[in-house]
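Q: Could you predict the 3D structure of CsbD family protein?
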Amino acid sequence: MQGEEHDHASGQGTRDIRGRLADVLGKARVEDQGREKARQKEREQELNEERKRQRERDRDLGWEL
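A: Sure. Here are the predicted structure tokens for CsbD family protein:
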């Protein structure tokens, strides 16, 4: 039988699986937080660039040909 091949005490395998799942989910959360911080930083840079362009347009006297 397949069940006899495993020498786990009752409940031990469940804790191992839950522990591994918690590790994986924890790592995924950390990676998600890192990606979100990177996206947020990128958005801030884009906003700063747009503000900079707007300031330059506002300073323009309109004398270009």
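Q: Anything worth pointing out?
A: Residues 8 and 14 are 10 Å apart (CA to CA).
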